[in-house]
Structure formats: structure tokens, C-alpha cells
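thoughts on my protein:
***
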Amino acid sequence: MRAIWKGSITFGLVNVPVKLYSATEEHDLQLHQVHDADGGRIRYERKCEVCGKKIAYEHIDKAYDDGEQTVVLTGEDLEALPAERSREIEVLEFVPNEQIDPILFERSYYLEPDSKSPKAYVLLRRVLEETERTAVVRISLRQRTRLATMRVRDDVLLVQTIRWSDEVRAAEFSALDDDVTVGKREMDLARSIVRDLEADFEPEQYVDEYQEQLRTLVEAKLEQGDALNTAATFGETEEDEGAEVIDLLEALQRSVEKRKGSSAKADAEDDAEDEGTDEAPAKDAPAKRTSRSTATKSTATKTAAAKKPAAKKPAAKSTATKTAATKPAAKTAAAKKPAAKSTAASKRKSA
């Protein structure tokens, strides 16, 4: 990572030199615009409306127009602001962690100690952890004075810029002013759904499916070109069979039943795997395991079929006994044949 700001944290008379780093990054696949007719790239040029020339960034200033006149602010003008020149993260107060509303959060930054001894940094980190407090700070960053919070994450001080109070809109919806009655049955079903979905949050288990599919699409396009068959690449899209459910109670009931069905199916699959006799292997199970399971099932069926007639049909059993009794006789006759063969050989010899 590359430091984007360098300064110090100040609380009381304590000064903690730090470097600031962006704590997050975008993982989106970068796309650009092209003309659909010929594939030519679409570019946005910075042209001056007066001279018509393309203008480089270093020759671009900012301006404010109040409708009657325009005020141009140069880079030197902006750098002259006292807040812009400040290189301090000023701690304003320490507040309980739970008092910061998440709607205020914007961007996150890591703070790295920037001195030979990180003692002051570690001291601040420990006191925030032990008191379970979050520091509300003020920082000038990228030509703006920002309000921010500072807390501990993985033994590192984390600064998160937050919005000013007047930047958060009031949530005023007339529909919520109505007096709504929620029945006991509806609450019980809703609680049941919540219980089924209770878990500890682990962000690593979630992935950006859209970006994964977008990358798959790009790779397939590179290999197959415009002849790409999206249905073959991603499979047929299943249409939503369920119609809109107007009755809230019915929707809750369906949700509970669906969850129960999914849980029962998962339990059955787990039991089958534990026993090692899967009668209906999953579609994505290895082919070797599927054939083995099928063979086991076939053998078991044949064995059961062989035992079943013997138990239910005594006549068949009697016939089997006669057959078994006949076999020794046939065996005796077969045993006598070598003797006959020997006698015939003696007669030929005498002759």
C-alpha cells in the first residue's frame, strides 16, 4: 500500500505521528464504452467552450457560479485555506462505540505509526480497547475538512470518515404514519424464519456473484467471440413460478415450509453420506461414487429378491430341495463314467 497522507494524531498534549492508507479497494471489472456499430472507443474530452481546445489537468481550475457571476478558485487559493494546510487528526471527544450510526460511515483508512517508537500509538490503541470508546476526530483530507471516527481493528487504528449531520436525509414516509396491526400468528412465523436464519456474520463466505459471472462472460467471449451461447455458458434461466403473494400470513407460512423442506433435505443428505449408502446421490457428486452407490443398491435389490420367494413360497422351497437331492445322484453317475471308460480301454487292449 502507498500512504496518501502524513500527519499526526493529537489528543490532549499527546502527539502520535502517523501515515494514512486506504483500507478498502474496488474489485469490479473495469469496463469502458464503445460504439456498438464499429467497436470504436468512446472518450470524454476536456474541451474549453471558449477556445475549443482540449485542456490538460494542470490547466484546469475550479469555479463557483451563483447564477450572476463566476468565481474562479485556483489551486493556490485552495491550498491557502487554513484547514487544508492542517496535518493533524484532532480528537474532539471519545464516545461509546454503539452511539455511531452506521449510516454516517463513508471511507475507511488505516493509520500506521510513523515514529521510531510506537509507544504513543500503542497507548492510544489500548485505551480505546479498554474503555470501549470510539474517538470522534477532525481531519483535512483531499481539499475537504472531514469528520471521522477512529477505532481499533485487528490491532490497527482505523479512521472512517463520516457524513455531517445535515448530509443525512430525514426518513419521512406517509405510509408509516398509518396504524398497522400485526397478528400473533404472523409474529410467530416471522420469529421462526429469523431463528432458522440465525448465524454469526462471516463476510468471507459471501462473494460478488455479478462480478464472477461478468468475468466468466468476458472469458467466454474471448474464446468464442460473437458466437457465444449464453444459455450454454450459464445454463437456462429458471422462471419464477410463484405469483405475487398479497396475503402476508400466506407468504410467511410458505417461507417457513420452504425452510423446513430445505432443512429436511439437507439432513437426509447428511445422513446418507454418513451411512455411505446413498440411494440418490447428488447431481454434482463424483461419477465414481455414483456408480459405486448404484452397484450397492442393485446388489442389495437382487439379494432381497432372492431371499423373498424362499420365505413366502414353500412349494418353491420343496422343488429346490428335490433339485438339491438330484444333484448328488448326477454326481455319482458322473463319477462312474471314468470306470466305464477304463473297461472299454481294457477290452481294446485284450483284442
Confidence is low (pLDDT under 50) at residues 279-351. The first helix runs from residue 75 to 79. Residues 14 and 120 are 8 Å apart (CA to CA). The first strand starts at residue 5 and ends at 11.
